[in-house]
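Researcher: Here's the sequence for the chain we discussed earlier.
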Amino acid sequence: MTLMLALADVSLDTLTAPPAWVWLLLLVATGTATVTDLRTMRIPNWLTLPLFALGVSYWGTTAGLSGLTNSLLGALVAGGIFIGAYILAGGGAGDAKLMLALGSWVGLEPSVVVVLGVTFAGFLWSVLLIIRRQGVGSVPLMLLHGLVMTRLEFRKVLRSGVTTVEAPAMDQPLQRPEQWMPYAPAIFVGTAAGWWYWSIYGSVV
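Model: Thanks. This is the structure I predict for it:
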């Protein structure tokens, strides 16, 4: 992590913890995303794109080049894995854009904490949904099925360079698949958990 910062010419002294109001802003944003995701199966661009732009602009204005670089690295860390999930396994594009926006506000090292929190919350959320829909006994099989399908999609992308994921038109009504899992609630919980962990323990790297 220190090497990444050095290569990016970011001074460690300028990387202060995000203030409480930033975390509160992100909880409001992820809470709003949770409502829209549950209601419409979408996390709208009017929420994610301005949030990302404001995060980059704020840190670029208040902390100069180091703040701008830290904001962009945070967006890369927080959003990168979800962009990969969207390309390879059909994850939500709205989820990826929301994570990009979160990373732009909290910066590089807090983004690692947030990603870990969101990932853990997402795993628990998926297990709870499986239990609710199909019972406890289905959990191992469904998790294995998800891993296998992700691996197959990954190999398909490597061979052809394209993915089978197709984004529906914004004006097209969506029908909820039987195994649909809204991920915004996990992002909300993971962000809250990330704030708690960061405020007590700081960086994990």
